[in-house]
Amino acid sequence: MTTVRTSRSGHLGRITLDRPAALNALNTEMVELITRALVKFRDDETIRNVLIDGAGERAFCAGGDVVMLHDSGKANGGRGDGRAEEFWRKEYALNDLIKTYSKPYVALIDGIVMGGGVGLSVHGQYRVAGDTTLFAMPETGIGYFPDVGGTYFLPRLGEAIGTWLALTGARLGPGGCLTTNVATHFVPTEQHAALIRALGEGEAAAVLAQFSEEPPKEEPIPDAVTAFASDSVAAILDALDAEGSDWSAKQAKSLRRKSPLALATTLRAVREGATLDFRDAMARELDLSLAFLTTQDFYEGIRAQLIDKDRNPGWSAEHGDDLAAQTQRMFAIRAEPPLTFIAS
After folding, report:
1. pLDDT digits over 131-145, tens only?
2. Which of 146, 223, 273, 283 lies most in the core, judged by the most C-beta atoms within 10 Å?
3. Contact of 20 with 55, CB cutoff 8 Å
4. Is 147 a catalytic residue?
5. Is residue 317 assigned to a domain?
6. How many CB atoms lie within 10 A of CB 196?
């Protein structure tokens, strides 16, 4: 059974993620199939627009196969078996292909959009939210960091907002996605079939303008989010505690449950990512991904959340490890060979 379906309708090339029982979570095969389809559609002169969506009603794409990443790193007595690195190299090259794609690229991000699903959407020209869009980058909760270009695009949403989303894994609905520019348009879910048909006939910008509507109202992001512009995780927590609102207390509680190493690494990566070009950011992310494979927190986070599901990870910083030294080491590891990209 195929995990990715491709089709064409008029001048539209369509890619559909087809693992609905797994919330369309990405594996290496899917990354390869999406890449192959994008190159084929790019080189086909009869294709004007390209659309990517997810099968089922629950998710566009809920992330990547993190249990495979966990098992890959643990294999061979902790030396790893290379599957995690292969996945990241191919996934990050795909993210760059989307970023540099030469034709209008439309991601229909209805349902859950997390992790790898964010990488398939936010770097493209158009991101269309629907009624059930739910965006998040929750990686710090599993002892990891927001990759797939997260260190590049999150700071460009605004320093405080991007840092808030990166550190807490906060969720945005369709209105929040439009407000932050995670999404470029909102089209009600019941109109998606008609939208897809229209994209097979017309120019993407004009079609999206025709179908786009105002999203449902949501609670605005409060001014207290400015606490996340502080210079360190400790300073962010101090600012949240001092602000004293229910919202700030909720954010502080969330941060205190997450991996201190993942938080410190993410904060530095997001702040430095604000000044990097996309390919440099992606190369840095491969370095960091490989660094996380060497940490206790990566395996503990995945174990606690997804394998044993006891929700009680034992983070390394809680056992006396020097957090500053750990964080510095994360930025000293370099992938060999460096990340390579797909020719445009």
Report:
1. 999 999 999 999 999
2. 146
3. yes
4. yes
5. yes
6. 18
Angle between helices 192-199 and 204-211 (to 10 degrees): 160
Q: Tokens for 267? A: 């904060």
Q: Catalytic one among 54, 73, 115, 116?
A: 116
Reported pTM: 0.96
In this structure, are residues 254 and 311 in contact, taking their beta carbons and an 8 Å threshold?
no
How far apart, in whole angstroms, are the C-alpha atoms of residue 308 and residue 149? Answer: 29
Domain membership flag for residue 217: yes
Give the pLDDT score at 77: 87
Whole-angstrom Cα distance, residue 168 to residue 137? 8
Q: Which two tokens stand for residue 163?
A: 């840092």
Task: Identify the burial level of 55 via C-beta atoms within 10 angstroms of its C-beta, where 0-12 means exposed, 13-18 middle and 19 or more buried.
Answer: middle
Reading across the β-sheet that carries 105-109, which strands appear in turn?
4-9, 12-17, 49-54, 105-109, 126-129, 185-186
Annotation marks residue 130 as catalytic: no
> Does position 319 have pLDDT exceeding 80, yes or no?
no
Catalytic residue among 13, 54, 63, 64: 64
Q: Which amino acid is at 65?
A: D
CATH number at residue 229: 3.90.226.10
Q: Domain span at residue 103?
A: 4-330
274 lies in some domain:
yes
Query: Structurally, how many domains does the chain consist of?
Result: 1
**241 catalytically annotated:** no
Phi, psi of 129 (to 5 degrees): -80, 155
Alpha-carbon gap, residue 37 to 14, rounded angstroms: 9
* CA pair distance 248, 237, nearest whole angstrom: 9
Active-site residue among 53, 85, 96, 139?
A: 139
Kindly state whether residue 20 falls inside one of the protein's structural domains: yes
Q: 73 an active-site residue?
A: no
